[in-house]
């Protein structure tokens, strides 16, 4: 996988403070497949540690130590992934008054990865465990299991790989009746 993190020069000169990358930052990246949103997303969060950091941030982890203790990942890998997620505006940092170290929080774009994490979780519940094998379960505020995530069209019908297609970049969109 291509590492899509801006260089240190780009991060400090064009993206001070680890804010969301500029259009120029995005344009200068070495993307796996520049026109594909799936490929770009995988370039940003597709390795296991990045997604697990996002998952744990959603579950309340906020400090380097929190992530290290929950994940058991090597310090250098954790530092690299936190830096990458911050550089691309998925995490933001702050330093509480009187603290020596900063904390991490999900940005709005990081919070939008919730549906991705839920979809992966639910797929894993169905396909990554033996029948009857114990696993964690995502529940809502009322303690009820979260319903299965499904992609729906504008009329509320399920959309699948068989009932959808990708319109490639640069291809004109022809609207069908009812769109």
List the helices and strands and how they pair.
Elements: H1 8-13, H2 23-27, H3 37-45, H4 48-58, H5 64-71, H6 75-87, E1 91-94, E2 103-106, H7 108-111, H8 114-127
Antiparallel strand pairs: 1-2
List keywords for this structure.
179 residues, mainly alpha, globular
Short description:
This protein is mainly α and 179 residues long.
Q: Please, could you describe this protein's structure?
A:
The chain has 179 residues and is mainly alpha-helical. The protein is 39% helix and 4% strand. The protein has eight helices and two strands, in the order ααααααββαα. A two-stranded antiparallel sheet has the order 1-2. The protein is globular, with a radius of gyration of 19 Å.
